[in-house]
Structures are given as C-alpha cells and as structure tokens.
Amino acid sequence: GETITVADLAQKLAMKGGEVVKALFKMGVMATITQSIDHDTAVLVTEELGHVALKADADNVEDALLAHVEETQGEKVVRPPVVTIMGHVDHGKTSLLDYIRRTKVVSGEAGGITQHIGAYHVETDRGVISFLDTPGHAAFSAMRARGAKLTDIVVLVVAADDGVKPQTKEAVQHAKAAKVPLIVAINKIDKSDADPLRVKNELLGEEVVAEEFGGDTQFVEISAKTGQGIDALLDAISIQAELLELTAVRDGRANGVVIESSLDKGRGPVATVLVQAGTLKKGDYLVCGVQYGRVRALFDERGEQVPEATPSIPVQVLGLSGVPDSGDDFVVVDDERLAKDVAQQRDAKRRESRLVAQAGNRMEDILAQM
Ligand code: GTP
Ligand code: MG
C-alpha cells in the first residue's frame, strides 16, 4: 500500500515532526521523522492529532476530477434530445408521459411493466428521444443551480378546453430565460369543448407564435387519452432536435447529472442519472456529489440490465456509497482512491460549511436577544 514519511505528514499537518512522532508513540508505533508509516496509520495519527484526515488537499482532487471531465474529448456525434414536459395543473402532463411510456417503451420480458425511474427514452422512426419524468420546474431549478443545460426541448402542454393559465405563462418564461425551444402540445383535443384556436391566440400574448401565424413554434394537437397526435408530437420533437444539432462526445469516461435517487431496501442506494458525455459502463468508478462507488449494475427503464449508457440516455446506477441528491454531477474516474478522496473532501467541506452556517445562526440568535 501507500506510505508517507513522518516528516511529510507533519508538514501537511503544519506541525512539528516531533509532535507526530510523540503521537505515534502513544499509539504504540515507533517511528522516527525520516521513517515511513502506512496509509492507515497516517490516517489514525492524523485523527489522533485532532485533524480531519483528508488524503489530498481539496483543490488537488477537484482539479484531478476536472481533468477527467476535460479528458472526455474527441469527435462529437449526434445525440438524442432530452425533453421536459411542462404546463398548467391538470392539463395532462402526467397522462402524456404515461401514454408515451406505455405505448413506446417496449416493456422487458421479465416484468412486462416499465419502471418509474424518473426518466426514460423511446425509439421512434426518426431517432431516440429521452424524456425527463420530473416536474418541469424541478428540472429547471436543477439547471439554474448547475448553470448547465439539462433539457434541450420543452413540450408545453395546454389543455384545449382550458386555454392558457398562470403556470402555462410561467413555463413559457422559464423556457425563454433558459433559451430552450418550446413545442406546444394542445392536449385534450378529444373533448367536445376543445378550442385549439383559442390556445394559439392566447399564446400570441406570450410571444409564442405558431408557424401558421408566421412564427417558428411548432403546435401539435394531441389527446393523451386516445393517443391522437402523439406520433406527430414525437416527429415535431425530432424535427426540433435536428435543428438544434445536438452533439456530444460519445467515447471515453462518462459524466452527467443525477435525475432522481432513493434508498432501496434490497439494492441499496439507487440513482437515475442522465449521461451527458462519454459512455457509462458497468465496473466504472465514479464520484456522484458527495458519494462515490463502483457501478455494480446499470438498469434501463424496462428494469433490464444494460452494459453501458451513452449521451442523453438515462440509466439507473447501483453501487454508490450513499444516496446522492438530484441535480448532483457524476464523473467517472480511473481509480477508486480518487473517487473516494473527492467524495470525502466534498463531504468534509459540506459539514464544515454547515457548521459555519449553524455558528452564524447562533450568532444571529445571540444578537437578536441583545
Ligand atoms: P398535475 O400533475 O396535477 O399538474 O396534472 P397533470 O398536468 O399531470 O394532468 P394529468 O395528466 O394528471 O391529467 C389531469 C386530468 O385530465 C386527468 O383526469 C386525466 O385523465 C385528464 N386528461 C389528461 N389528458 C387528457 C386528454 O387528452 N383527454 C381527456 N379527455 N382527458 C385528459
Ligand atoms: Mg401530473
């Protein structure tokens, strides 16, 4: 294993060599300043001396991690679009996602039913499309927090019998602020009081202009109940995706983002991640927020094991040390040590900032009582 001289360890701890020798002696380890001690002993004595044993300094490991992300370079290839569904309450977002999942995700032989893993992908004649099955606003909050794009296209669901409502307008604002193109799905077209023209007119007020009115927004009339227009909607998404010319590096170590996570009684921590670059494989070491681990298994939305996942494809990951937060980044690294170091550094940092925040709160309490 790894070793370090007592002198080097003392230097890292900003202590005198003699103090470390003394602490080691108390632990029953005889070592002089120039002698080497093993990794575990170094961690023990460091903790004995009241320090948190961080195996490398924080900036170094984060740099090493960043290098891993930057190394995933090379020829970019076309990748599928990642779609988020937004719209006013009860306008049919869940029904639409469920209809597509039920009819377009071919269920696995074993279970016969598709899994709810927070995201899924479908294959159409025009190519693959990935859907995030999370509330639209959650996807956008995660995007804002990360300053990165998680979704390429928003499908705005507007009920044809209800028209434009506050959350419809909010969704338009979100998409515009994030510069994500919209496709309008006028839903519930099967209803007798459906009025698609009214929806188009009302959206003019939000500067969402249908192609037939001289604008550049695709409108598709659908029914999430009967399935009418769903294929046309999938086509519209593929057309929009082609215009966006979405690409990603496909080879090399993967990185991406956590969509959803949970603790499963039998399987341990489970995270649904969206690969954004590279290829995630079974056996990979990864850092995921403050968690780390080795990919024990990957599952798709049909609950079937898959050997790998490429850009824009969501996949369930087993083998993490704990449950990451949705919106966390994940990065594949070349060895477990680095994965562990980064995760532990981040965890220590997070604890530290929590302590600082708590101290701040206490200070405010004291000041408030004065
Ligand atoms: P929230 O998650 O509460 O915001 O609602 P939602 O947008 O997910 O709507 P949901 O899919 O739950 O649908 C609301 C209601 O509208 C349900 O009773 C659906 O059965 C019904 N519904 C959804 N789509 C259609 C449709 O195309 N036609 C008809 N007739 N009913 C629909
Ligand atoms: Mg819903």
TrEMBL record:
Keyword Membrane among record annotations: no
Cell compartment(s), UniProt: Cytoplasm
Positions contributing to GTP binding: 87-94, 133-137, 187-190
Stretches for region G-domain: 81-229
Occurrences of domain Tr-type G (ranges): 78-247
Function noted in UniProt: One of the essential components for the initiation of protein synthesis. Protects formylmethionyl-tRNA from spontaneous hydrolysis and promotes its binding to the 30S ribosomal subunits. Also involved in the hydrolysis of GTP during the formation of the 70S ribosomal complex.
Family statement: Belongs to the TRAFAC class translation factor GTPase superfamily. Classic translation factor GTPase family. IF-2 subfamily.
Protein's UniProt name: Translation initiation factor IF-2
Naturally occurring in which organism (per UniProt): Aerolutibacter ruishenii
First-to-last residue of the parent protein present: 296 to 665 of 874
